Predict the structure.
Amino acid sequence: MKAFLLFRDRDFDFGQTPAWSEKTLIPDLALDTLFRAMASGDEFLLPVAESVILCSLDNDLDTVLYRQRILQDCLKNPAVVRGLYALAVEGIKCERKCSWGIFSKYPAGILGRGIELLHYLIEVLQKLRSAPEQYGAAFQSEGFRNLFAMLEAELTDEYFASIKAHLKEMKFRAGVLISAQLGKGVKGKNYILRKPRIKQHWLISWLQQYFGIREAGYTFVLDPRDENGARALSELNERGINLVANAVAQSTDHILNFFKMLRAELAFYVGCLNLREQLAKKGEPICWPDPVPPTERKHSFRGLYDVCLSLRLRQRVIGNDVDADEKDLIIITGANQGGKSTFLRSVGLAQSMMQAGMFVPAESFSANMCPGVFTHFKREEDASMKSGKFDEELTRMSEIAEHLVPDSILLFNESFAATNEREGSEIARQIVSALIEKRFKIFFVSHQYTFASGFHAKKRENTLFLRAERESDGTRTFKLVEAEPLETSYGEDLYNQIFGEPSGV
């Protein structure tokens, strides 16, 4: 039995190594805030959300659309999905009810524990089997339809009747029938557990006993004090039921593994439900993104906002509208603290969420798939740095270059600004020009006018210039508008805000 809720034809590998860029994506995009919101206090949901999102950057378009349709079903039927998740958890907890201690090491103990565990698991499977009949009509996605069809086909009435009959037989109330062969040294070999003889009607048994009629065969009785004989019989019994004990153990493992995978894959969608509920309480919009193949250049959205910033604030976050279709380079300039870095994070978060098959924090969103998302944000100097800030920036850029794959997206936040304006601008220009030539998509936040104006002067059609809006009195609107770069970032506004307006001379 397979759930197949994250991929159409295979299980999700929760043990796989995330993308190399994980170490920078989490702090730069504040992804830990997103993961905690999806977990909502559930310790199991947190690593699932992290694993699925960080390991989804190489998803193909078909997988993204497959998950989108499943998540749409989840948003329409949240109570049912949470109920299925609860059943998966209940199935896993059945294992805790069965503990045979030291006896679980022996075939009899393994068999006894397996039989007890199967009884509990069947009860949960029967509850799960009723889901298609009760809720199947409310789900339209291929993933849920296949899951419900599998449950109906596998968990039939005949299946449950057969399992219960086998469990009843394996209690061996009438004893154990074993066949064996003699081997070398008159030792037994090829021990096989046989199907017990058909039990005779009580009247026939009574008549045979009354008239002294005995069936053909040999019988012996152990003396109550014969410990060695009792031990020998116990060993024979263990050999006979060993194969059955292993088969029962494998059956329970199979069912438990199904519940574990069902729980893990549903956990991702439960995390999405948790996130949606938190955003809905604030009135924040979400939309179903429209992904296109990596080779296209698509990036347009309305009302895109930083979902992690929204989760940390009480008020709603201001969104941005951008049409960057057919663009390879988007340069963002403008006033300090005008929302440039926040905008950059919103782009990276939306891309990561879309490629995981999630909804996106925007009114509308369409972008091409990117096999890699990389961030190069400025770092503050700290004691762990083995060289200066500028050397550290170049080292990180070199590491990114080693892991780049075609059509990746790179987010630069005030990169290469640790040196002087002329040198920093030239290095940024050379790196960006080389990346564009190899068809990478770049969003670059910069205060370096020489760098930004140099690209603006070339008037390339594949370049878009955005500027953080500032009103005449210095107020930041936190909106980005399409505009050419300016020589100033209005740092004096911040000075005046902190120290007050300068007095007249």
Notes: The mean pLDDT is 85. The longest strand covers residues 463-470.
